[in-house]
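Example record

One chain of 93 residues, shown exactly as stored in the release files.
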Amino acid sequence: MPTRIDADFFRDKIETLLVMETTTSWQAYYGAFIAYQKENPDVPIPQRAKYHDLNLGAWVGTQRQNYKKGILPAERIERLEEAGMIWAVNKEV
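Predicted C-alpha cells for this chain:
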C-alpha cells in the first residue's frame, strides 16, 4: 500500500485498468473473429452476428470504422488483415 495517495497514483491505476480491459476485450473478440473465419471461410460476418455471446458483427464494424478514421493501431490492422479482414464491404441495394 502506498504511503501517499495522490493524483498520479490514481492516474497510473486507471491507465493500467484501461489497458488491461481494452486489450483483453480486443483479444477476446479477435479470437472469436479467427474462430468464426475458420468455421465460415466464405461467409462475411453479418453486422448483427453473435458468436459465443459476443456481438462479433458490431465489433467487426467498429474495427472497420476505426480503420477508416485512421485510429486503429498498425499492429491490429496487420493482425486483422492476416486473418482475412475485409475493410470495405459493398452493400447491394
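Notes: Helices lie at 7-39, 56-69, 74-82.
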